[in-house]
Amino acid sequence: MEAYISDIAAEGGVLTVSFSGCDFNCPSCNTPQLAEFQTGEQQDLRIVQASIADAAPTQIVFTGGEPLLQRQALLALLRWCREHTNARLIIDTNASKPAVIEELITEQLVDEFLIDVKAPRDAFDRATHAGTFFIPAEQVFAEFLRSLAILRDAQNRVTLSFTTLIVPGLLYTKEDVLAIAALLDGFDAEWTLKPFIGGVTLDRRLRGLHSPSEHFLDNLARAVRAAYPNLRIRVQSTADTVV
Asked: What torsion do the CA atoms of 169, 171, 175, 177 make, to the nearest 10 degrees?
């Protein structure tokens, strides 16, 4: 079996497997090279497994792109990892595929989900450009809500954490952030607000956009704490944000 995998990188005890292909077209995406399934990036899973075995990691992060799009390959890799390693298995996802998430939880193949919460309903299409002629953004958002429901029911079995990228002009208002907070209220998980960092982005018009200040993000977090005191929200500083 093969999978579209752009990169396998080890740092310390963490191995990151980056899948190509994504069902979102976020203008602010800082890995546009992973947006499409690129010819020549197919890798035999036996080679990927050998790389994992050689690295002997304590944690393996499957990211993208969107790893859940390649369901069969992802399942095969996770099953192999469960059998042949003691590594903590982590999925970094936009949570657009609830059926796959449910399958991973049912088979106990994942220890932790890192959920990238792009936007609330009203800003979802603007922030993700996920809608197509065949699947409107409203339907994609409904699938995301299904994923949240599945994860809410499973939070005593897997570790969850959420991140939201604050992008001036796309996703940045107090109303946007409070609408996301309403979706996450009740989760026993940390939610991190991350500042957009200019540079390489899918939409070239955003490449020179200034990052929101840490003070600005702190004010957003303060508004969330006032409205949802049980939410564990933190702000990631610009210095700690990896582009």
From this structure: -150
Q: Distances from the Cα of 6 to the Cαs of 19, 35, 40, 181, in angstroms? A: 6, 11, 9, 33
- Cα distance from N-terminal residue to C-terminal residue, the chain: 31
Report yes or no: 25 and 129 within 8 Å, Cβ to Cβ.
yes
DSSP tally for the chain: helices H, then strands E:
7, 9
Structural domains of the chain sorted by starting position, each given as residue range(s) with its CATH number in brackets: 2-240 (3.20.20.70)
- Give dist(CA 80, CA 113) in Å, integer: 18
Per residue of the chain (243 residues), give pLDDT as tens: 999 999 999 999 999 999 999 999 999 999 888 989 887 789 999 999 999 999 999 999 999 999 999 999 999 999 999 999 999 999 999 999 999 999 999 999 999 999 999 999 999 999 999 998 789 999 999 999 999 999 999 999 999 999 999 999 999 999 999 999 999 999 999 999 999 998 888 888 888 889 999 999 999 999 999 999 999 999 998 766 554
φ/ψ of 57, rounded to 5, equals -75, 160
CA pair distance 231, 215, nearest whole angstrom? 19
**pTM metric for this prediction:** 0.94
Give the DSSP H or E segment for 221.
helix 214-227
Count of all residues that appear for the chain in the document: 243
